[in-house]
Design brief:
- The protein contains five helices and 23 strands.
- With 335 residues, the chain is of the alpha+beta class.
- It has four domains: 23-37 and 271-334, conserved putative lor/sdh protein from methanococcus maripaludis s2 fold (Beta Barrel), CATH 2.40.420; 40-50 and 194-266, Efflux pump adaptor protein, beta barrel domain (Elongation Factor Tu (Ef-tu), domain 3, Beta Barrel), CATH 2.40.30.170; 55-83 and 161-192, OB fold (Dihydrolipoamide Acetyltransferase, E2P) (Beta Barrel); 86-159, Helix Hairpins, CATH 1.10.287.
- The strands form seven sheets. It has a six-stranded antiparallel barrel with strand order 3-12-15-14-13-16.
- Strand 13 and strand 14 (224-237) form a beta hairpin.
- Helix 3 (86-121) packs antiparallel against helix 4.
- The protein is elongated and about 135 Å long.
C-alpha cells in the first residue's frame, strides 16, 4: 500500500471521532443569591381585642341606673350600672347586729367560765357545770365565726350593687334598661378593650414556620398598611383548612378592633423565577454549573409557570442563558 492510500485510510478512521466530539455549550452563570426572589405571601386576618366582656350582675336586683351609653370610653373602676341595694343593705345591718349580740354573749360566757374555774378550785361548783361553761364558750366562738362569714357575704352583696368597668375600654352595647330586674349571669353592658389588641391570621401550615423569619410583616386594610411583629404561632393545625393561627402585635400605628384585612409578608426562603425552571425526563428543576459540566438539580415542589423555592447555598452557580440547550452531564463553556 502506497503512502497516499495509507493517509486516506487514516483520515477515514479519524472521521467518526471528529464528528462525535461534542463542542462545549456556551452558557452564562449567576449565583443563586443574585437570582433569588422572595415572593409576597398573604393570609386573611382580623384585629381582635384581648378583653371583650359582657359585664353582668352577680345578684338579683332591680336596675336603678345605667351610667354609660354606647360609645362611651371608660376607665377601669368606672361605674357602669347601679342596682337597687335596699334589701341587701338591710340584710347587712341585720347580720352586723347579730354579730354584735354574739360578741356580747361571748364576753359573758368568758366571765362565767372564769368564775366557774375559780369556784372549782375550792370545790364549790360541780364538774358538770364547769364543762357546761366551757361548751357554751366554744359554741359562741363558732357562732361568731359563722356570723363573721355571713357579714362578709352580705357586705360583698352590697358591693355588687355597683357594676364597675374591669378594664379600660369602650361600651359597645347596652343589654339592660332602668327598672328591669337583673339576675346573675345576665349581661348588662358589653365592654371592649381597644388598647390591648392584636392580629389573628390563618396561615397555611407550610408557610407558618417561614413567617417567623420574615423581617417585614404588615397588616393591610383598604389600602392602609400597619407594621406588625410576630408574637406566637399556635401549635395546633386546623385539619379542614390546613391552616395554623398566628398572633401578631402592632409595632406602630394600629387598626381598630374588628377590622378585617390581610397579613402580608415576604417569604424568608429563596425562590427562582418561573422561566429559570426547566423540565428534564418529566422532572422540573435547575441546571447548575459544576466546573465545566452542567448538572440537573430537581425541584420536587416546583410547579410549571410559578416561582420555585430553592434549598441551596446562596453561592450556588445557576445556568441562566443556554439552559434549554443542555442536559445533565453536558460540557459547558462559561461566557
Amino acid at each position: 500500500m502506497d503512502g497516499s492510500m495509507r493517509c486516506v485510510l487514516i483520515l477515514i478512521l479519524l472521521l467518526p471521532v471528529r464528528v462525535g466530539a461534542a463542542e462545549p455549550i456556551p452558557v452564562s452563570v449567576q449565583t443563586l443569591k443574585e437570582l433569588a426572589i422572595h415572593p409576597q405571601v398573604e393570609a386573611p386576618a382580623t384585629v381582635v381585642s384581648l378583653n371583650h366582656s359582657q359585664v353582668g350582675a352577680k345578684i338579683t336586683a332591680t336596675i336603678d341606673e345605667l351610667a354609660v351609653q354606647v360609645g362611651d370610653k371608660v376607665r377601669k373602676g368606672d361605674l357602669l350600672v347601679r342596682l337597687d341595694c335596699t334589701d341587701y343593705r338591710i340584710r347587712q345591718r341585720q347580720t352586723d347586729a347579730a354579730l354584735a349580740g354574739s360578741k356580747a354573749q361571748l364576753r359573758l360566757a368568758e366571765y362565767r367560765l372564769q368564775r366557774a374555774r375559780a369556784l372549782a378550785k375550792s370545790s364549790n361548783v360541780s364538774e358538770e357545770l364547769l364543762v357546761q361553761r366551757e361548751v357554751e364558750l366554744t359554741a359562741l366562738k363558732a357562732e361568731i365565726r359563722a356570723r363573721d362569714a355571713a357579714l362578709a357575704g352580705a357586705s360583698e352583696d352590697v358591693a355588687r350593687c355597683e357594676l364597675r368597668a374591669p378594664f379600660d375600654g369602650v361600651v359597645v352595647k347596652r343589654m339592660g334598661q332602668t327598672g328591669e330586674l337583673a339576675a346573675p349571669g345576665k349581661g348588662l353592658v358589653e365592654l371592649q378593650d381597644v388598647d390591648s389588641i392584636e392580629v389573628s391570621a390563618q396561615v397555611p401550615g407550610a408557610q407558618a414556620v417561614h413567617l417567623a423569619g420574615s423581617p417585614d410583616i404588615q397588616f393591610r386594610d383598604d389600602g392602609d398598611h400597619y407594621p406588625l411583629r410576630l408574637r406566637a404561632v399556635i401549635a395546633v393545625r386546623d385539619p379542614r383548612a390546613r391552616t395554623q393561627e398566628v398572633r401578631l402585635q402592632f409595632s406602630g400605628t394600629r387598626a381598630l378592633p374588628g377590622t378585617a384585612g390581610r397579613v402580608l409578608w415576604r417569604d424568608d426562603q429563596p425562590y427562582v423565577a418561573a422561566d429559570l425552571v426547566v423540565r428534564r425526563n418529566g422532572l422540573l428543576g435547575l441546571f447548575l454549573a459544576e466546573g465545566e459540566v452542567a448538572r440537573f438539580h430537581p425541584l420536587p415542589a416546583a410547579q410549571e409557570g410559578r416561582p420555585a423555592r430553592v434549598d441551596l447555598p446562596p453561592d450556588t452557580p445557576v445556568i441562566v442563558a443556554g439552559r434549554v440547550n443542555v442536559v445533565d452531564g453536558s460540557t459547558i463553556r462559561r461566557q
